[in-house]
Amino acid sequence: METLRLALLFVHILGYAALLGGLLVQVREETKVVNPLMRDGIGTAFLAGLLLVGVLESLGSPDHAKIGVKFAVGLVILVLVMVNVRKPAIPQGLYFGLLALTVANIAVAVFWSPVHA
């Protein structure tokens, strides 16, 4: 089960890396779009995250507050990306909002660690 957890965590990280890469590749571009890398990245990260929670539940008691925050932020990113995937351009504010939400979700994963007594 630990091997499955690590494999899902790896895929989850790759998904967020793809999403962030899809965002950062456009930083200097005048027109921002939802590109396939962003779409596939958030889809992969979200699905792998859901599966990872199932595995974590079977291994013990995960931090439900952290999972809830990551789920909510990930769901917002997923919806915003999917709603705008076919549009020829997205507003600068939406682009920077997606970038901020992505970085925030990564920060929650890294810095919100369990409390050790």
Automatic annotation (TrEMBL):
Keyword Transmembrane: yes
Membrane spanning residue stretches: 6-25, 37-55, 67-85, 94-115
Keywords: Membrane, Transmembrane, Transmembrane helix
Domain of life where this protein originates: Bacteria
Protein name: Integral membrane protein
Source organism: Nocardioides alpinus
